[in-house]
Amino acid sequence: MYKISLITGDGIGPELSESAISVLNTINDKLDLKFDITKLSAGDKALSETGKALPDDTINAIKQSDACMKAPVGESAADVIVVLRRMLDLYANIRPAKSYPHMPALRDDIDMVIVRENTEDLYTGKEFSLGDSAVALRIISESASKRIAKYAFETAKQRNSKKKVTCVHKSNVMRVTDGLFAKACTEISKDYPEISFDQMYVDACAMNLIRQPQEFDVVVTTNLFGDILSDESSQVVGGLGMAPAANIGDTFALFEPVHGAAFDIAGQNIANPSSFLLSIKMMLDWLGTKHKDSKCLEVGQKLESTIFNLVKTGIKTKDIGGEYTTTDFTKQITDNL
Ligand code: ATP
Which of 180, 231, 236, 183 shows the shortest CA–CA distance to 208? Predict the structure, then answer.
């Protein structure tokens, strides 16, 4: 039995959470793997109800669980996810982008993953006013850069792919901070002679994600660049509705969609739950590897193939060219699992 904490979120978060609960309950009933789900509040609604975007009870329940699923939260996202990433030292943000058949993707041969440093850069919130200026501190450390570089090379080693790591930065302008990041990645690359290594400025990377996305394998980059590039890579393979993410530390992990709360479509039953359901797949992979539980890996594979077989036969939500509602698409998944 795995204890799963679930932040239900804001905007389309509650709809995605209901979809995730139905899928996890179906796995409980049909696939011989047990999850005990605890629903938790955090985000805009929690802030207005309790005065805290990340209530203490939520933090305690997350710490007592085996893994956390987090639906998107709204305006208070920085007070929830950025805090959790740092508090739980979830230093690696993993954002895969893979083209699947019958998707509005740029090409059908894209299979890449962005490994984004998750604990520092401009996200440490060290901003202040100074005279007529506003100042933000960009913190990049050698230890965090080497740690994420190692994670990226290990990811490239395990992937059945091109065995390539591309370090993305802007060291021609930010010579000290990105200079340090590039140097740390270069040093780590020497421990992995079997993986090819190259470097790219972030602007060139943004262009190449459109021009030749099939050339990428593992991209390792700093926090803010990783956030921006992963929205782009998601769109390149069909859109945010299909984009999952994992925040991974040495002992704990949190899974969430790449996208935000999408208030423009909230409450309409049209959101694509695949981003959150593919995050469950990432959670199953992580639990399976951590606990040497092959059942988790098998069910994760089954969940992913169920989603993509449906999409392939035209059973899809509106954002990727279909007509299915969130609840009807979820029902198709639970019926087919
Ligand atoms: P944030 O800055 O919090 O990441 P954002 O400004 O990037 O948020 P999102 O909420 O991530 O905005 O979404 C951008 C747009 O993509 C939404 O307005 C919505 O139309 C679409 N979108 C995002 N997620 C989904 C989804 N699961 N299903 C369908 N459409 C989605």
Answer: 236
